[in-house]
Each structure stands twice: as C-alpha cells, then as structure tokens.
Amino acid sequence: MAHLAIELRQPHDAVRIAVEGLGQATAAYGTSRLVARLHTMRARGLALIGDRAGCSKALEDAESILDEATAEQPAQWIAAFDEASLASEAALCFLQLAELDEAERRAREVIRLRSGDRVRSRTFAQLTLANVLVHAGRVDEAAAIGHEACSTTVSLSSARVVHQLRALGGVLSLAPRSRQVSSFLAALAGLSATSGEHNGAVSSWPV
After folding, report:
1. What pTM was estimated for this model as a whole?
2. How far apart are CA 89 and CA 92, in angstroms?
3. What residue segments make up the domains of the chain, in order of their start?
4. Phi and psi dihedrals of 50, rounded to 5?
5. Taking a C-beta distance cutoff of 8 angstroms, is the pair 14, 6 a contact?
6. Going by fewer Cβ within 10 Å, which terminus of the chain is more open, N or C?
7. Chunked mean pLDDT (size 10), the chain, 207 residues
8. What is the DSSP string of 127-156?
9. Residues 6+ apart with CB under 8 A from 188
C-alpha cells in the first residue's frame, strides 16, 4: 500500500503506511528484507515531500538492515528485495531531490546488477536513467536509452513500462530533433496503442 500511495502521488499517506508496516513487520521472523523495503518506501515518500535529510536517513536504515539480512532465511511470503531493488528506489529518490549525479550512479548500478534475466527491473532502471539524463540536459543519451527500452518492451507487455516510455517521449518531443531523438520517437510510435493506463484514486486507506 505504501508503494501504491507513492504511485498515486500521496507521499504523506505513503510514509504513514510504511511506518505502520514497520510496526508489524519487525515483530515477525524472517522479515528483514521487508523491513528494508518499508524504510525505502518511507524514503520515497519523504523525497516526494522534499525532506532530504529524512530521505537520506531512511535509505541509510534500509541499507544497514539489508546488509544484516544476508544470512537470514526470509519468510516464504516475503517478496524479493535486494541490493539492486534498493538502488532502484534510491535512484528515484535522488532524482526527485534533483541530486542528479547520485541518481545516475544508482540507476547505472541497477543496470549492472540486473544484466541477466531480470529484464523488467533493468528496463525500469534504464527509464530512470533516461529521466536523470533529461534533467541533466543530456537529451541524446536519454533518447538512445529510451530507444533500447522500446526494443525490450515488445517482449515485456508491461503497461507501466509503456506509460513511462510515453512520458519520456512527451518530454523528448519538445527537444531539438536530433537523430537519436527522432529514432526514439519513431520506435515509441511503433509500440502498441494499448497501454493499460488508469486514472484513479483511493478515498481512504485501510490503515
């Protein structure tokens, strides 16, 4: 729910729900990776609010707990959360805080760690990196990465990936039309018109 609140741009709810989750998760065995993820969700919410100090502290908490979780056997109901997962969320935090060098470093770290079969995670990291590069004024580099992500998206069938690609395309359509930008926009136009996008909100949260 904390992650969903972030996607819905409800950062105060995201922080509150993550804190509620921490109170529950720390009382159960084998939940260190979940605790680290909840601290990371706190960091994402705090970044959206603009609380740099709070965000950095939450990321430090997540990193410390994740380091200690290496020898722990996770509970079977815990979703995977590893170094690359944390780096991916941290990259989004630093992008939100306009700390572009650190955001780029974290996004490239995810791409390196996800160079194997975790294609969807790697594609999200590429899109984060592309957005970092756009904010840094490196438009052609961003377009080249977006073009590569378009090629991957055909096999992923991911509405979230398509949504983020189209958002990147909207930004790059306003940039000077270089060869890289034109190639990316052409590849984007070739994607399926069905994105599965939804607009919606929750009137209240169950916690």
Report:
1. 0.89
2. 5
3. 1-67, 104-193
4. 100, 15
5. yes
6. C
7. 95 97 88 96 98 98 93 88 96 98 97 84 95 97 95 77 93 95 94 50 70
8. HHHHHHHHHTT-HHHHHHHHHHHHHHHHHH
9. 146, 150, 165, 166, 169
